[in-house]
Structure to design on (877 residues):
């Protein structure tokens, strides 16, 4: 009877098996686009091998498969990572094209060690060079793009690449390049002095950024991690660009053979003289910024690799001020500060960095258990890094300011509108500085990793485990020779009026030399499980650190959890796959930040060697939603976070200069909500929208903070427990939008927009009780670029070779061999017209404080640059 039933089922299934579909495609190298001949293609039905073949010399395959049932396709090639696609289903007589780009195993070797964030961490920001190359920016830095693409990031100065994240200052951010920790000069006091940051955009392969809640493998900072990985070209490539603000040159390539050398070289030059000419202070500006970099990777063998990275960066700035005029106030009251200057300001910041890394990748161990349909893979990787960072900094300032503060007429209908009504103050200030600093940081670091992966082909489940550990030693030497003073003279006598006092308003003198040692280490385990319905990833880690100066030992446990309920989707071709629509994240942990050097120095220049680490506990929850709208992919991220902080070192911010109080004097908290939406508003062009709400508060120990509010004509004083931090902002909105003309993809528009509420500040020398009582005006800026494609070899190849059997890579190769084409070696050429600060908004960088005859202080804003045009070109080879 059973045989008869089986026979009828067999007859019923024959028509289904007879229904056929066709699957065609091409296998290529993901990095080079070259076809992969003789690659293995296998198709499974109900876990049984249905058909297997190899690709032809052009990497193509053509399969006749049964229509209806769900199939599993696997593609493999020696030296490349395996590709697998499940739930593949064809319709009757359907011809489905599936092109597959395989990644090399060699490419994965160093990335596992220096990898910043896994693709499974759906909330982490990942950007490539192509994603950011058209963003109009004045700094020529990678960091400037974070304002428009990352959540919780703020920047209020277009001259600076510094940024704050979720209520922290710039010193609370970690920056890595290829696993090497990056430092910056310490004496910079204004964005005008700041040169080029270390990460080179032309050399970028990918950057990853986390706004908080990062893993234990990253160092002792409280806010964020920026991890940059440079390019690993497989063939020669080059880029040249230039504009009114400077230019850059990039060369990259790889030699042939088993012991190949991969190289990337970058040179950048920047001058902001054109932008500085729009400032209120008129005079002679001479800014010269240069950055040279080289990254060399040599294959010692199949499992060994050595890397050498070097950087020379110089920032030279000279200002000979002549005069300035700045007006501030409201419609019913306005004041004008006019100044005549004598003297000059000269600053020089020279930094050097050399790093070497030795990487070893163990042989991949693969074990199969046929009866259980299990595949087990094991691998280990190790990396040792040595680096040396040196900084030689000096600033020489000797400027006399003869000023006059006047009240001006504001009535629009008045005959004397804009005229002077009276003089509030006049006098002279003399600013003098001779500051010299030398910093040297020697670092040795070891990172190891062991991965264990388990695949069950019968239950379609995957289980992975990644164990990482590391040790770091730092030797830090600081020599700081600081001498600066400011005198303030009004009406011919020096304030305060005291015949026994020196005629100096502020005097700082210190000569410090420090040699310290830091030790840190971490242990971290990541576990991942996936089946057809669920994806779960958890990371538990512990970080420990010790600093010889204050002899403080710290432990910081950290935990991250990602969960995705998998859902099924049907593509236009009616194939199916499982994908993560929603990803939920939970992160909590301790993020302690030991002081470096500036945190030790208080406002009077005195060094406190007993300062402890600033401490913080973070908790973060969020959701990531991947969705499609009008057949275009979008990603929405929403995160809530809370940071409890203690042993804080209070600070004031003046322009980009952070001035610490030099002791653990405060506690505080930061809470907020971040929202990001990015996707293809225009097909093929990704745009970004970010919105953040923030509340950053602190309380100085033993201080009853007061706030002053105006009630009618009286000032009401009330006591509060917490006051605003200098970096507190109610909201931040930013957007980066890309567009192109329909049917004219050769013309693109790139718009970068940001709007943020003002940060807080207080009265100098009186910012303790009524702390950070005032706000700067909101920061509002629009930069827009119009780009014209002069040459695009890929598009020309598509136009010239209509034969669909040719891959794009093969078509481009044919175009390069056309000796009649003068642009055959040029990959692309772009010309852009950029408008910075389109609305000519007067954003404020800092304040100049002036006292009138009654000893009342006035804050006169120092405005940033106005509207400027920029012409830029870019050539890719």
């Amino acid at each position: 009877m059973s045989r008869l039933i089986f026979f009828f089922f067999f007859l019923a299934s024959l028509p289904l098996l007879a229904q056929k579909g066709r699957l065609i495609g091409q296998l290529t190298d993901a990095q080079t686009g070259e076809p992969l001949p003789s690659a293995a293609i296998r198709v499974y039905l109900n876990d049984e091998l249905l058909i297997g073949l190899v690709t032809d010399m052009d990497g193509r395959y053509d399969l006749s498969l049964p229509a209806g049932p769900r199939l599993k396709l696997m593609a493999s090639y020696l030296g490349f990572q395996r590709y697998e696609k499940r739930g593949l289903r064809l319709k009757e007589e359907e011809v489905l094209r599936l092109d597959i780009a395989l990644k090399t195993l060699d490419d994965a070797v160093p990335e596992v060690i220096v990898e910043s964030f896994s693709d499974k961490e759906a909330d982490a920001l990942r950007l490539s060079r192509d994603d950011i190359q058209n963003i109009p920016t004045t700094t020529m830095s990678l960091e400037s793009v974070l304002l428009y693409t990352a959540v919780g990031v703020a920047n209020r100065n277009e001259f600076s690449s510094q940024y704050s994240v979720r209520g922290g200052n710039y010193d609370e951010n970690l920056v890595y390049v290829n696993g090497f920790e990056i430092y910056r000069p310490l004496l910079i006091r204004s964005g005008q002095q700041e040169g080029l940051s270390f990460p080179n955009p032309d050399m970028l392969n990918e950057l990853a950024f986390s706004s908080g809640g990062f893993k234990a493998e990253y160092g002792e900072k409280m806010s964020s991690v920026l991890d940059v990985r440079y390019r690993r070209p497989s063939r020669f490539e080059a880029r040249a660009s230039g504009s009114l603000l400077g230019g850059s040159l990039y060369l990259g390539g790889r030699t042939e053979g088993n012991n190949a050398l991969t190289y990337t070289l970058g040179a950048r030059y920047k001058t902001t003289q054109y932008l500085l000419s729009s400032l209120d202070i008129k005079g002679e500006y001479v800014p010269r910024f240069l950055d040279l970099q080289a990254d060399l990777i040599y294959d010692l063998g199949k499992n060994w690799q050595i890397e050498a990275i070097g950087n020379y960066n110089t920032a030279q700035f000279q200002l000979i001020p002549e005069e300035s005029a700045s007006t501030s106030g409201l419609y019913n009251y306005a004041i004008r500060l006019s100044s005549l200057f004598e003297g000059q300001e000269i600053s020089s910041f020279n930094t050097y960095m050399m790093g070497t890394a030795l990487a070893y990748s163990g042989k991949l161990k693969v074990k199969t258990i046929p009866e259980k349909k299990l595949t087990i893979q094991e691998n280990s990787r190790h990396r040792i890094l040595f680096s040396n960072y040196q900084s030689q900094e000096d600033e020489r300032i000797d400027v006399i300011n003869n000023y006059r503060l006047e009240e001006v007429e504001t009535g629009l209908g008045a005959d004397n509108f804009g005229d002077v009504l009276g003089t509030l103050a006049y006098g002279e200030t003399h600013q003098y500085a001779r500051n010299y600093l030398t910093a040297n940081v020697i670092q040795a670091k070891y990172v190891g990793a062991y991965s264990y992966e388990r695949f069950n082909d019968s239950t379609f489940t995957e289980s992975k485990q990644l164990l990482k550990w590391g040790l770091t030693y730092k030797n830090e030497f600081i020599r700081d020779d600081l001498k600066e003073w400011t005198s303030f003279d009004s009406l011919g006598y020096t304030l305060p009026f005291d015949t026994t006092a020196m005629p100096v308003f502020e005097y700082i003198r210190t000569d410090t030399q420090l040699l310290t040692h830091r030790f840190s280490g971490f242990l971290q385990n990541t576990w991942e499980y996936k089946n057809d319905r669920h994806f779960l990833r958890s990371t538990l880690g512990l970080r420990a650190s010790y600093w010889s100066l204050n002899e403080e030992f710290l432990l910081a446990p950290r935990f991250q959890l990602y969960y995705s309920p998998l859902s099924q989707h049907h593509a236009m071709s009616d194939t199916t796959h499982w994908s993560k629509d929603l990803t939920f994240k939970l992160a909590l942990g301790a993020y302690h930040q030991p002081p470096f050097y500036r945190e030790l120095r208080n406002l009077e220049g005195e060094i406190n060697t007993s300062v402890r680490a600033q401490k913080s506990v973070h908790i973060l929850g969020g959701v990531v939603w991947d969705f499609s709208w009008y057949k275009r992919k979008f990603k929405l991220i929403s995160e809530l976070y809370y940071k409890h902080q203690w042993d804080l070192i209070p600070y004031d911010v003046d322009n980009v200069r952070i001035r610490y109080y030099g002791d653990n004097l405060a506690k505080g908290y930061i809470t907020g909500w971040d929202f990001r939406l990015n996707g293809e508003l225009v097909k093929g062009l990704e745009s970004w929208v970010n919105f953040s709400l923030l509340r950053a508060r602190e309380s100085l120990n033993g201080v009853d903070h007061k706030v002053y509010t105006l009630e009618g004509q009286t000032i009401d004083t009330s006591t509060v427990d917490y006051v605003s931090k200098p970096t507190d902002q109610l909201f931040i909105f930013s957007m980066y939008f890309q567009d192109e003309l329909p049917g004219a993809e050769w013309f693109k528009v790139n718009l970068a927009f940001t709007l943020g509420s003002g940060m807080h500040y207080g009265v100098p020398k009186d910012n303790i009780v009524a702390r950070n009582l005032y706000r700067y005006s909101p920061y509002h800026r629009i930069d827009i670029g119009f780009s014209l494609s002069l040459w695009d070899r890929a598009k020309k190849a598509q136009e010239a070779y209509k034969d669909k059997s040719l891959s794009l890579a093969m078509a481009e190769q044919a175009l390069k061999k056309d000796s009649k084409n003068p642009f055959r070696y040029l990959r692309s050429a772009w010309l852009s017209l950029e408008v910075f600060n389109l609305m000519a908004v007067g954003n404020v960088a800092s304040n100049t404080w002036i006292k009138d005859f009654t000893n009342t202080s006035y804050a006169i804003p120092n405005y940033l640059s106005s509207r400027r045009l920029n012409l830029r070109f870019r050539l890719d080879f």
About this structure: The first strand starts at residue 20 and ends at 29.
